[in-house]
């Protein structure tokens, strides 16, 4: 997946977050290609959560990517995702403090995450499902709102 390194030109640029829920988000495939997570209403969150649960059940392990305005927001999104799925908490590769917008990349197989400063990204949570025995089950889903799991 390619992530643009340029900031959006206006709040109404395609793929940017808009006020209110996005009526075009009906399933995980609707999120593909979005730069930032859309606003979702309760029904959309529930439907996407159910679909994601089914997709994740077919996978052996997971990767997580978090595009956030701060390290604290990224870590909170990671921890809520881990808790929602009963995953063991990932450990930081480094204790270095990161200021400003960040990208967090976590890998369940290694049990680690890396946090780096990264400006110009959108905002959201990406989950990658991995399976050595069922490669057809693999995929990357999102971006989901940072508070999607609580």
Secondary-structure map with pairings?
Elements lengths: L41 H16 L3 E8 L2 H15 L5 E2 L9 E6 L4 E6 L6 E7 L8 E6 L6
Parallel strand pairs: 2-4
Antiparallel strand pairs: 1-3, 1-5, 3-4, 5-6
Structure description:
The protein has helices at residues 42-57, 71-85; strands spanning 61-68, 91-92, 102-107, 112-117, 124-130, 139-144. By secondary structure, the chain is an alpha+beta fold. The protein has a six-stranded mixed β-sheet with strand order 2-4-3-1-5-6, covered by helices on one side. The two termini are 26 Å apart. Residues 1-18 have low confidence and may be disordered.
Main features:
alpha+beta; six-stranded mixed sheet; 6 strands; disordered N terminus
Strand arrangement across the biggest beta sheet = 2-4-3-1-5-6
Strand content: 15-25%
What structural category characterises the helix and strand content? alpha+beta
Low-confidence stretches: 1-18
Please report the total strand number as a whole number: 6
Distance between the termini: 26 Å
Q: Secondary-structure element sequence? A: HEHEEEEE
Q: Kindly state the mean pLDDT as a whole number?
A: 85
Whole-angstrom Rg: 15 Å
Characterize the main sheet. Answer: 6 strands, mixed
Bin the helical content: 10-25%
Please tell me what the overall shape is.
globular
What is the overall number of helices?
A: 2
Summarize it.
The chain has helices at residues 42-57, 71-85; strands at residues 61-68, 91-92, 102-107, 112-117, 124-130, 139-144.
